[in-house]
UniProtKB/TrEMBL annotation:
<dbReference type="InterPro" id="IPR032438">
    <property type="entry name" value="ERCC3_RAD25_C"/>
</dbReference>
<keyword id="KW-0378">Hydrolase</keyword>
<dbReference type="InterPro" id="IPR050615">
    <property type="entry name" value="ATP-dep_DNA_Helicase"/>
</dbReference>
<feature type="domain" description="Helicase C-terminal">
    <location>
        <begin position="100"/>
        <end position="251"/>
    </location>
</feature>
<dbReference type="InterPro" id="IPR001650">
    <property type="entry name" value="Helicase_C-like"/>
</dbReference>
<protein>
    <recommendedName>
        <fullName>Helicase C-terminal domain-containing protein</fullName>
    </recommendedName>
</protein>
<dbReference type="Pfam" id="PF16203">
    <property type="entry name" value="ERCC3_RAD25_C"/>
</dbReference>
<keyword id="KW-0347">Helicase</keyword>
<keyword id="KW-0547">Nucleotide-binding</keyword>
<dbReference type="InterPro" id="IPR027417">
    <property type="entry name" value="P-loop_NTPase"/>
</dbReference>
<keyword id="KW-0067">ATP-binding</keyword>
């Protein structure tokens, strides 16, 4: 329902129907047109805060962490002299994030983990470093289905995914997401990515959502905006410096 105000989708509201029902967990848009939904399908009937649903056991509890990294001197110089429309990409794709991703993956070794980002070259680098499959818009439907099924069954425990995994994917046992970059300040995308983890776990465990952010850049400004919807739902982000992350436990047999 959050897509309905977009020109390509709003025409569906003109289809003949005796009743219309829209369901969404993220009724938020950066163009401010959320209210258009109600003129297209009718008034809001019910709204349940996420934390209330969590307390009732319908979704898993989640630990949200913002991990802050710093650019090198040369990267700061490149960032400072870049054109404004290039600065977000430079900050979001800071190479220092790659090592932090590896550290977090090792920390949650064995957990069903998604590494999520916006920029394909960044994701390709990470997939290579992690020796993990990569799913993007160019991945065939058959291959996506195969990889998602292997992830569901536990045959795969790690996937690197682009924005194609933002919604309409059922991965019940996904318990860790590591976000390296996103679509600028999209609150909806932030909530959708956390939502990939919130199916209740068979062991009752907590989901872990990490957002790796380059400090003192537009990446940090966008992250603050992205987090607003989840903050309104009662989620708080713990802020951790990358240098203060606890080391990963040793692998079994090491």
């Amino acid at each position: 329902m959050h897509l309905l105000p977009a020109p390509i989708f709003r025409m569906t509201a003109d289809l003949q129907a005796r009743r219309r029902l829209g369901l969404t967990a993220t009724l938020v848009r950066e163009d401010g047109r959320e209210s258009d939904v109600f003129s297209l399908i009718g008034p809001k009937r019910y709204d349940a805060p996420w934390k209330e649903i969590e307390a009732q056991g319908y979704i898993a509890p989640a630990d949200c962490v913002e991990v802050r990294v710093a650019q090198s001197d040369s990267e700061r110089m490149a960032y400072a002299t870049a054109e404004p429309d290039e600065r977000y990409r430079l900050a979001a794709c800071a190479p220092v994030k790659d090592g932090v991703v590896e550290q977090l993956v090792a920390r949650h070794r064995g957990a069903q983990t998604l590494v999520i980002g916006q920029y394909l070259d960044q994701l390709e680098t990470l997939a290579g470093r992690l020796n993990a499959p990569l799913i993007t818009g160019a991945t065939s439907v058959r291959e996506r289905q195969r990889l998602f099924e292997e992830f569901r069954t536990g045959a795969l425990s790690l996937l690197v995914v682009s924005k194609v995994a933002n919604f309409s994917i059922d991965l019940p046992e996904a318990s860790v997401a590591i976000q390296v970059s996103g679509t600028f300040g999209s609150r909806q995308e932030e909530a959708q990515r956390l939502g990939r983890l919130l199916r209740p776990k068979h062991d009752g465990g907590t989901a872990h959502f990490y957002s790796i952010v380059t400090r003192d850049t537009v990446d940090a400004d966008m992250a603050a905006h992205r987090q607003r919807f989840l903050a309104e739902q009662g989620y708080a982000y713990r802020i951790v410096d990358a240098g203060d992350l606890a080391p990963a436990p040793p692998a079994e047999g090491a």
